[in-house]
Amino acid sequence: MARFLIELKHSDEHDGCVRALEAIERYGSHYMTHADWGCKDGTHCSWLIVDLDTREEAVRMVPVGFREEARIVMLNRFTKDEIASLVESLND
Q1: Which of 56, 37, 40, 57 is nearest to 48 (CA)?
Q2: How far, in Å, are 7, 85, 90 from residue 47 at the CA level?
Q3: In the 3-class helix/strand/coil scheme, how is 1-30 assigned residue by residue?
Q4: Which runs of E-coded beta strand occur in 29-76?
Q5: d(C-alpha 8, C-alpha 63), whole Å
Q6: Residue ranges per domain, the chain?
Q7: What is the distance, to the nearest Å, from the Cα of residue 9 to the centroid of all Cα atoms in its chain?
Q8: Cα dist. 37→7, 47, 63, 76, 88 in Å?
Q9: What tens digit of pLDDT does each residue of 34-49 get?
Q10: pLDDT, tens digit, for every residue of 78-90?
Q11: What CATH fold (topology level) applies to the domain 2-91?
């Protein structure tokens, strides 16, 4: 299973927030109940981190009207050994 960050941006006007929230609520998705939003701090974005098998599953979590603009990033962590190997490859 992979971990994905889903980021949705919307207009920074009040109407943009309302439209985004309405659309996502109408979609009735897991997104609405688990996403974090930055609107109240002036960053008109929402973020959701999910564990899924494929990127396509992450795309399907996004309401259709937002899919084209959504940014979906597969996340990873590095082990100490991986970092050491990467640093070593720079020195070759």
Answers
A1: 37
A2: 5, 31, 33
A3: CEEEEEEEECCCCHHHHHHHHHHHHHHCCH
A4: 36-37, 45-52, 71-75
A5: 10
A6: 2-91
A7: 10
A8: 10, 6, 16, 22, 39
A9: 999 999 999 999 999 9
A10: 999 999 999 999 8
A11: Alpha-Beta Plaits (3.30.70)
- What residues pair up with 36 in beta bridges, in sequence order? 47
Query: How would residue 64 be classed by pLDDT, with cut points 50, 70 and 90?
Result: confident
Percent pLDDT > 90 in the chain is 63
- The amino acid sitting at 33 is T
**Residue 29 pLDDT level (bands cut at 50, 70, 90):** low
Residues 6+ apart with CB under 8 A from 11: 17, 19, 20, 44
First-residue to last-residue Cα distance in the chain: 33
